[in-house]
Automatic annotation (TrEMBL):
<dbReference type="GO" id="GO:0005794">
    <property type="term" value="C:Golgi apparatus"/>
</dbReference>
<comment type="similarity">
    <text>Belongs to the chloride channel (TC 2.A.49) family.</text>
</comment>
<keyword id="KW-1133">Transmembrane helix</keyword>
<dbReference type="GO" id="GO:0005769">
    <property type="term" value="C:early endosome"/>
</dbReference>
<protein>
    <recommendedName>
        <fullName>Chloride channel protein</fullName>
    </recommendedName>
</protein>
<keyword id="KW-0812">Transmembrane</keyword>
<dbReference type="InterPro" id="IPR000644">
    <property type="entry name" value="CBS_dom"/>
</dbReference>
<feature type="compositionally biased region" description="Acidic residues">
    <location>
        <begin position="34"/>
        <end position="43"/>
    </location>
</feature>
<feature type="transmembrane region" description="Helical">
    <location>
        <begin position="526"/>
        <end position="546"/>
    </location>
</feature>
<keyword id="KW-0472">Membrane</keyword>
<feature type="transmembrane region" description="Helical">
    <location>
        <begin position="413"/>
        <end position="435"/>
    </location>
</feature>
<dbReference type="InterPro" id="IPR046342">
    <property type="entry name" value="CBS_dom_sf"/>
</dbReference>
<feature type="compositionally biased region" description="Basic and acidic residues">
    <location>
        <begin position="44"/>
        <end position="53"/>
    </location>
</feature>
<feature type="region of interest" description="Disordered">
    <location>
        <begin position="1"/>
        <end position="74"/>
    </location>
</feature>
<keyword id="KW-0129">CBS domain</keyword>
<feature type="transmembrane region" description="Helical">
    <location>
        <begin position="238"/>
        <end position="263"/>
    </location>
</feature>
<dbReference type="GO" id="GO:0005886">
    <property type="term" value="C:plasma membrane"/>
</dbReference>
Amino acid sequence: MASSSSGLTERKLIHVPSTDNHARFNLSPVPSVGDDDEDEDDAFDHQTRRDYPDIDQDDSGEEVDLGGNPLDTTTTVTMFDHDHEVTNASDRKNDNGQMTNVAYVVHKHYENFQTIDWLKDLMRNRIRHRNLRAQRRQSWRKRLAFWFDAWSGWICVLLVGISAGLVAGFVDVGAKWMSHWRTGVCTPAFWLNREQCCWGSRDVTFDDVHNELCSSWQTWSAIFGMDELLVSAWFFRYFMFIFWSVIYATFIVILVVGSAPYASGSGIPEIKTILSGFIMYGYLGKWTFLIKSIGMIFATSAGLIVGKEGPFVHISCCCGNLFSKLFPKYGNNEARKREILSAAAATGVSVAFGAPIGGILFSLEEISYYFPYKTLWRTFLCCMIGALVVRIINPYGNGHEIQFPVEYNVPWAIFEVIPFIGLGALGGLWGTLFIKTNIRWLKYKKTSRIGQYPRAEVIILTLITAIICYPNNYLRLTMPELIRRLVGQCHVEDHMDLCDYQRDKPIGTATAKLYAAFAGPGLHRAIWQLFWALIVQVILIIFTIGIKVPSGLIVPSISIGAIAGRLIGIITEQIAFQNQHLAILRRECGVSNEHCVTPGLYAVVGACAFLGGVSRMTVSLVVIMSEVTGGLSYIVPLMISALTAKWVGDAFGEGIYEENVKLSGYPYLENRESFRFTLKAGEAIRANRSGEPIPLACIYQDGMTIAQIDLLVRRHPHSIYPVVISEDFPCIVGQVQRRDLLAVLKSRKTQLTFTHTKPLLNRKVSVVSMSNLLNKSGQPSTLGMRRASIALQASKTLQLHKLVDRAPILVTDQTPMEAVIDMFRKLGCRQIFVTKNGHLQGILTRKDIIRLMHEANVSDKFER
């Protein structure tokens, strides 16, 4: 049998039951023992509250009625024992009553590192909505509550969009200012970055990489009164660049490791797993939100080869989680909460790139596991609001929300399809190389001493990065600034190295067309510096992704792809210019010697190809790159490169996010992966390789002692236990969750400690999980029902029938595994019971399915 296990901790319990008069939610038709029991409940409630007022309370669950409405906001385990020292009027009426009744418990929150039950959560939501709809005509307050519930989804995503946009604007402005602080200070107003400082200056000049230079912006050597032309001044600026980089990295790694370990990394693999139904408490908490927001500023400002766009997805989901708690519709239902988280994940991409449509497609294609149609419209609103807020803040300083604007509309030539395909293939190969080496490095860190010193690792890596990057003018730039220069087009007034051509024809006006020409010395110098920058970024990103700071992979991939694309674009441009007589070029490039190759376009296509090679995105990637650059005329080249990169990358393995999920061991069931072998459910639950059967950990309906139940939950720490009729007749009749059993056992032990000086756990006390409603043939038994009623009234019993879920999902041992896997994917099951001729054979969990699919893929590779 395959069964899931997880480390569960016992929750505190309320031993004081609710005193409401509503009917309890009963999952099995156990015969009632009389109406007097309700009076006994109330009397015992009053007595218990008076005698034991200091019993711990916890909000881990709620008691519900038949309609599914919450009757109490706390966990309530109703226990009463008439022959204990608690006496009341009902006890005098029936002195022999010795039944302990346990009310049905519905937990608001799952245990940590568990998978949610999609079917049960969605069912609870439908019942809650139906009750609100039925009660809306009773009063104006009920009607207001109904309409508030109906509009709560729109209000929630509106708040998420506003908050995500504000955080994105704050992070963008802060990161740019702190990055420029490493090279100098704006003396009139220190809170301005270099670009803002020189806006109002009349003596603005530009250096070889198009950085602004003005009298208001002072370098560190100038501030300390050193001559800018001296070698010592250059080394002093070098030292200050390294100093501030190390200070930034040291601050954030201490903050992350010490206060919020979940704030490290990009968070996209974990968000994928959470949206699939996995519980990770604290990962979307307020401390993670706060520290990761600050950490993105410091990590990118330190000059590390990381981006802040990936962590924006995590930050937006934190906003979604925090705001969903304000609305019971989402805060108390994990399945519905994931609709808000899906919209928030899309908003993260929207505010990071200014690409709202691309964010929606990114969430739909790459992130979301459950994406109903109504969530699409709410996601649309959320992304629109986020992009609008970023546009109002204007963090990029270009007057619109596009981060890397493309200001040219030159048509591309047919022969350029060949270099576009080459860029796509190169991006797929680089993505495979990065994924393999980075995953291997992360595995090595887990088993070596390097992983034991995350602070020292970040500080040393930052020191090495700063030492290597400062001498290169292009590496000294922030990655968004570098990408903006690479994808841009040369203008007449540009004098940077990338635009240094030997043009013979005079240029009349600033709007005149630039004609093709031979590369000048500045362009040759830029090519070698870009080639060195490409090598440095490719090497450093392997060791940087995975350190204990907020680190995204999207912008570094775009930067590497833009460098490679610009280099290939310059080479293609020179080849086309010098070989215009060829037949393939004569038609496109032989007219008026005008530009037929745009190197900036190759940078855009290369960025798309390299990001696609790492993430394996296609549709959403093309839309994101089109929105980021504003180049809607180049959708076809982007599609060619993205599709080629995915084909080449898929030939060697999966994307980086899927590999990180596997490395972390998260129970994520991939929707796109197929099961290649014809295996039956009965074969999947067979014992280990030795062939010895593993005994099933079951609860028997015929009766078990408290000691046996206690031993069962300790020896077999599974999340759920099947309930069968008997050991000889293992016909499954329901399932009981481990947390409910722990709640009952802890409550029982506490009550016995209060009422007896000696524990009674060794006494032969029967634990009845359900009444004996079935005989050995599986048919209803009137005698069994009568005996059960007598047993419950006349014996010392612990009645657990209200904790039993009598609607488990069953399949036979002959069910094909393809159908079982589809049930896990489409129904969101936590586990499925496998039966043979009505008898329980075993349990299949999500982890078992993932393990079987992995083993099938491994064996398939060996057979090939």
